[in-house]
Design goal:
589 residues, two-stranded antiparallel sheet
Length: 589
Amino acid sequence: MADAEGDTTAGEMSDGLQVELFHPDSDREPGDTNYQGYGFDVHPVVFPVALVVIAAFVAATLLLGNEASSIYTAIFNGINDYFGWFYILVVNVFIVTVVYFAVGKYGKIRIGGVGAEREFSTFSWMAMLFSAGMGIGLMFFSVAEPVTYFGSVPPFFAGNGIEAGSAAAAGPALAQAFFHWGLHPWAIYALVGLGLAFFSFNRGLPLTFRSIFWPLLGERIYGWPGHIIDLVSVFATLFGLSTSLGLGVTQVSRGFNVIAGDLFGASFPTGTFGQVALIIGITLIATASVAAGLEGGVKRLSNINLYLMLAFLSFVIVVGPTLYIFNGFTNAFGTYLVSLPGLSFFTGAFAGQPARDFLGGWTIFYWGWWISWSPFVGMFIARISKGRTVREFVMGVLFLPSIFSFVWMSTFGGSAINAQIAGAGILATLNTQGQSIAMFSMLSQYPLGEISTIVATLLVITFFVTSSDSGSLVIDHLTSGGKHDVPRAQRVFWALSEGGVAAVLLAGGGLTALQTAAVSTGLPFAFILLLMCYTVYLGLENEYTILESEAFKEQISRIDSMDDVEVTASSGDVVTGISDGGEGTSDAR
């Protein structure tokens, strides 16, 4: 066989095999009913309905004025009081589900089919995971959260006789932060990402949430049941992302204020007006990046983000209390593992109102935020994960980012707690000036505080940009009928819209409005995720059945007999890779 043909033989064979045996019997194509014009390529129902509802929400926030904040507070409290237990329960279901998929027989299944190749290197894949997943949140909460818990012991640990502000309070403070930023949120992302990737790449269905429900709905995913699922996904994505952008810009404004004071003896406006102005400015930068596309914009910035994060992390470890950080990580990690079962199901039902208030302000908010963010992060992860096995996907998404978050929290939160024990007053500053100042207050206690403040502010800005880029990409998929490639004008439109919604929410109700938007949109989406556990199971079971079928084995036998094609199998039974001979299997790529 000619070399020119050998380079594409495996890919063509496996693609044809995937279509013939695995794709559903349907003549529909992603975006086949779209409206095209004026630089847009949009779904005729999802796009306009989403615009109308989003515009109505923004208009109501502006018209209500000062009343918006009190309404948002009432909604936020109501969800915490009546549905907090539900959030806590379902997130544990998600963890059990994704681990089952990974460690069982389905772990051998390759996303995209047996011959699928990876689109991105492992480094770029991990970089984009971090940038899309939690970048802004880690920068905002990595000092504020552990220090807050240090000053007021979380209710789960409070019964152990630990005194707030004592050295013994540091371990529970970090362990509680690990709980909020570890396995639970990444399990949500892993479930969503796996479902989207599987039904899009293995079944050839549109890259939207409606496709995950093909096992139950069939062709009806293209009707109103599918429209509703995608609309809820759009709202959850937009408002979850707006929460992150709003939190990020409050920290950027604080960083600019610290930098202006240290370098020029001036001040930067940290109120709503200054924050809205920053959102506009950074959104314009994000718009330019998103116009460059996934390769030119998002991937490049994500790699830069990861390099900056690693350099910043290493710097704080070196100039900070190095031994305290390492000892603290080890101690807190052990406390987290031992406490994980109890923490995972702790609802405060028998601990009084203060415990329930804590859960509402922290755990329930986080679970709602992660769930509302899951369409955004999950779809983005799905988009970049073709060619990886289910086991590799789940283990990569679930464990590696969690460990990195633990190290990050131990480094920044541990450094802040160590300084607080030494009398630095970081907790008092946080209580008087808000959570957004916590990172900069900690950095000022260690060498080169001015330089590290500049780096921290730059990191938040770049995370803002990549989050906006990734969010635009995801909403584009949802509102274009699942097309993988959409016009540049459409990406720009959604990048501007995300910044606009974040600015309106921040101006109309402040942080409470942002939190309410995340938690309230996360609630209906939690029901969708719960049903998704079952549909993904049905899809994987069907895939595995086909992989073991005689029809598949006959096709593989025919392909394996060709000179330039190599077939690999797991444990000698299930085929896991088809590649060009002499180049290694797709497992090695």
